[in-house]
Each structure stands twice: as C-alpha cells, then as structure tokens.
C-alpha cells in the first residue's frame, strides 16, 4: 500500500506581502526560502517559508493579494496549522508573543500544552512542544536554535463530513488513527515532521475562501514515479485527481477529499535548491522559464519586499 510520509507544504491566502514576511520571518523566525509568483496569477507573489535547509515538510506558502476579500475559517478547510517547538521553549514563545503584541491563549489537548495565536490576516496557528524532529539551526532576530520552530507538527481539519476525511487519511494516504479526545480524532504518519492530523468533530460554520484561510494542504510523494502511482490510486478510488502539474520545485496532482478540503500530492524533488544555492534561498525573485521574458514588467508591478529584523529585536 502507498503511504505518504507526511505533509509537504500548506498554502494560505493573505493580503499584505510585507506584513506576511514581518510576521513569519520577523516574529516566528522562519526562513524565507523562495520568493516567486503564483503561476496561475503572475501579478501575485508566492512566498515560501521554512527552516534552515529549505526542504519540503516544514514549508508554509502564501499568496499575498491586497484585493482579495477576507475569508472565514470553517468546514472544507484546514482550520489550524500546527508547529513544533523544542521542549522547554514554550515560556520563551509566550514572552516573545507578548513582546510583539500578538494575542494568544493556552490549552491542553492529547496531553500537549498548546499556544494558539493568529497571524495578521487571521490565520490560526498553534505552537506545541515536541521532542520529535531535528533542531532548526536557522537563527533570526532574537530566536536561537534552542527555541526555533522545527517545522510542522501537523494540522487540524474542519471537515464537512469528518468520516469521509478520516476515510481518505486512513485508506488512501495511509495514516493511522491513534486516538480521540474532546471532539477531535487524531491521525499520524511515519514522518518526523508534519506527521499529525486532527479532525474536528464538532459542527462549524461553512468555510469561505479568502485572506486568512488555508487554500490547500499538500502531502509528500517520494518522486515523479510514485506521484503517478498516487494519481492512479486516486482515480481508482473515485477522487478525480487533476493531471500532473509542474510547479518548478515539485510536481503535483490535486483533488478534493470527501469533506471538501483541497488536497495536493507533491514530489520531494527537485526541491527548492534547484534554481539557487542553499545559502542564498529567498534572496531574489525566481520566475519559471516561460515568464522570464516578462521579468521587468513583473518586477515593476510587484511590491518591493524585505526580510528584516524587527525593531523589537534590534
């Protein structure tokens, strides 16, 4: 049976590109690993944030577009993106969020102490201490390796039909159900990062796509050959996957699972170092070959962006 090792990336919608960078790089300390454009809407940036190595797994990406309407988190969406932080670092993060006036609250689920917070567009995030996963040695601002976000723990799904979502996680993607608690089902994969999915079982409002919501979640495929196997499996299960699409840094297929959430399966190769070296990731605008002839026009239209240490860290 095919099994995904875990999450490849999560993609969300936001309004302001510079605010997005200031929060995810400046406050959370993630590395901007790729600055490119939305291949379907080249007038819009596509920003990728991850850890030191820029490998798939911890990657969150954004389509920042000032004109899009505010979305609403609800059914048919990834409701919460969950990050791993090192054991013993939660007090550091509480103090850091207070310092930057980011509102948060704490709770406990599945025995884990959770910090819940919201980004400037309203996207819901959680920080959870975990001994799993490698240390992230990317130091930025006031964040050192002993506090740095390691990558995804996983995500919480708000499904229109939770049993259908559970079915695709178990019977198609190969995750294992490991428990339920207070209205959540929990599933886990074999990966070190991005290995945990919660399905919320209590009713919710219908989700509306827009700023402050997740557009889709992508699962890892080993390579292009395995991706074709995934596509064949999805077709046999009646999920109507798209054709294989080339996203420069990975190839992917997309499908909607039975609870309304848009899933993607994406290959690990060629990866984010295919067009710039690891020590220069995210420093310049990268364009696919078919848009290079329009570089000057696109650079004029896109707003100027800067990864900067925030005033409170200087």
Automatic annotation (TrEMBL):
Pfam families: Glyoxalase. Signal peptide: none annotated. It comes from the Bacteria. Residues 6-130, 151-268 form the VOC domain. This is Ring-cleaving dioxygenase mhqO. Keywords: Dioxygenase, Oxidoreductase. SUPFAM superfamilies: Glyoxalase/Bleomycin resistance protein/Dihydroxybiphenyl dioxygenase. GO terms for molecular function: dioxygenase activity.
